[in-house]
Recover the amino acids of this structure.
C-alpha cells in the first residue's frame, strides 16, 4: 500500500494496524521516503539480508565475549 505522509499523520493508528499484515510505503511529494512494516515482516527482511554475511562456523558466544572485552 502506498500512502502520503499527511494521511499517515492524520490516521496513524489505522496504518499501524494495517502494517501488521502488509507493507506500507510512505511518500512525500510523490516520492517514497519510508516503509512501515509489521514486526514479523521486519525480522524476516533483516534476516534475509544477513544470509551469507556471517560464516557458518562462527562461535556466537566467543564473538559476544570478545565484543564485551573490547568495551
Amino acid at each position: 500500500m502506498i500512502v502520503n505522509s499527511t494521511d499517515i499523520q492524520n490516521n496513524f493508528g489505522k496504518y499501524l494496524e494495517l502494517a501488521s499484515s502488509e507493507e506500507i510505503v510512505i511518500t512525500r511529494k510523490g516520492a517514497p521516503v519510508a516503509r512501515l512494516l509489521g514486526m514479523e515482516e521486519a525480522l524476516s527482511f533483516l534476516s534475509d539480508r544477513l544470509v551469507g554475511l556471517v560464516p557458518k562456523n562462527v562461535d556466537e558466544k566467543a564473538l559476544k565475549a570478545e565484543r564485551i572485552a573490547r568495551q
Notes: The mean pLDDT is 84. Helices lie at 5-10, 12-19, 39-50, 60-70. The beta strands are 2-4, 24-28, 31-36. The two ends are 43 Å apart (CA to CA).
